[in-house]
Amino acid sequence: MTEIERFEAPMRRALDLAGRGPLVGGNPQVGCVLLDADGRIVAEGWHRGAGTPHAEIDALSQVTDADGLTAVVTLEPCNHTGRTGPCTEALIAAGIGKVVFAVPDPGAVSGHGAQRLAEAGIPVVHGVLHDEAETLLHPWLEAMRRGRPWVVVKWASTLDGRAAAADGSSQWITGAAARQKVHEQRAQSDAILVGTGTVLADDPSLTARGDAGELMPAQPLPVVVGERAIPASAKLREHPRGVLETGTRDLDAVFGDLHARGIRRVYVEGGPTLASAVIAAGYADEFAIYLAPALLGGPKLAIGDLGTPSMDAILRLHVDSVEQLGDDLYVHAVPKGS
After folding, report:
1. How far apart are CA 161 and CA 296, in angstroms?
2. pLDDT at residue 319 above 80?
3. Which of 63, 26, 5 is nearest to 220 (CA)?
4. pLDDT tens-digit profile of 85-107?
5. Residue 333 to residue 287: CA distance in whole angstroms
6. Nearest to residue 272, comparing CAs of 232, 305, 317?
7. Is the pTM here over 0.85, yes or no?
């Protein structure tokens, strides 16, 4: 058995622990287990959200003596001081004998933890269950690699692609089950983007709510893209996270600013002008598409001009899953080849 194979079982446990952490908050989902000399797990930890102990610190807190133990972590231990101190220094101070991790931290500030550990004389093994960890952390990793948030574009339409009737009314195209899934997806996002046109036309609240209409614990930050100010009476003014008005339609500037604010997951919910601009600019990483078994006709398409002059430039998608939600269909897709 190779050294990589020897650590696969504890790494799989660490990945399970990582999945318990929140998707939102800017920080990655990370799990950690500590092994004794016989390879037995003596402590477990995971990150519970921004400002809470990192997975390594959580695991270390459960042992009185970590000298010589092996730390198995899903992500390379961080090497910077943020809301908490560097995990590398905590591992070194605890006397950890070896560190095993799955994927490197791509952060320009938080990365290079393996180098710091090696400098302290701690052997480091990396790449254990790399693909599984990459899948779990993919949106966060890509956000850090690219310096912009992971972007999900959502729309609801009839089967003929209409998002509203000719008079502009759009409530409700889909049924209750589909709308509840949208609320759940909002709660799994750091921010939710809309255009000023949607705010002025629909006056949305953009909160994430449960089945009984209660506010969910996690709420996305509403971000209004556009140059016009929204009215003082807009429902967004009462959002529990407040509202961010960008004052610009420059998507490069918008996404750059959001990343600098620690926002890693963005949900684009409206309207067609903004969604089309995001897709046309190549920012769409996922598509959350809700289809109602209905026909409207008319000009109010869910997606507008994408700047695609011919079939040679068509944006093809790979459909990951299709789910029945009452009478409606939910289609999850990603750009083909991504």
Report:
1. 8
2. yes
3. 26
4. 789 999 999 999 999 999 999 97
5. 5
6. 305
7. yes
pLDDT of 11 above 70: yes
Whether the CB-CB separation of 283 and 255 falls below 8 Å is answered with yes
- Rounded to whole angstroms, the Cα distance separating 290 from 288 reads 7
Cβ neighbour number for residue 113 with a 10 Å cutoff: 27
Instruction: Judge whether 228 and 198 are in contact, CB under 8 Å.
Output: no
The residue length of the chain stands at 338
Ordered alpha helix ranges (H), the chain: 3-6, 8-18, 55-60, 87-94, 113-119, 130-146, 176-187, 196-202, 251-260, 272-280
Catalytic (active site) residue 56: yes
Residue type, 73: V
Tell me which of 5, 8, 56, 214 is the catalytic residue: 56
Alpha-carbon gap, residue 240 to 220, rounded angstroms? 9
Vertex 229 angle, CA 224 and 230, to 5°: 70
Whole-angstrom distance, CA of residue 45 vs CA of residue 38 = 19
Two structure tokens written together for 10: 């504890």
pLDDT of 304: 87
Rounded to an integer, the average pLDDT of 71-86 is 84
- Tell me how far apart the alpha carbons of residues 30 and 54 are, in angstroms, rounded to a whole number: 8
Peptide bond into 271 cis (omega under 30): yes
pLDDT tens by residue, 145-168:
999 999 999 999 999 998 887 777
d(CA 180, CA 271): 19
HEC readout, 195-242: EHHHHHHHCCCCCCECCCCCECCCCCEEEEECCCCCCCCCHHHHCCCC
- With left for phi above 0 and alpha for psi between -120 and 50, is residue 221 left, alpha or beta? beta
Cβ-proximal residues to 126 (8 Å cutoff; 6+ apart), any chain: 76, 100, 101, 102, 103, 104, 114
Q: Which residues pair with residue 12 across a beta bridge?
A: none
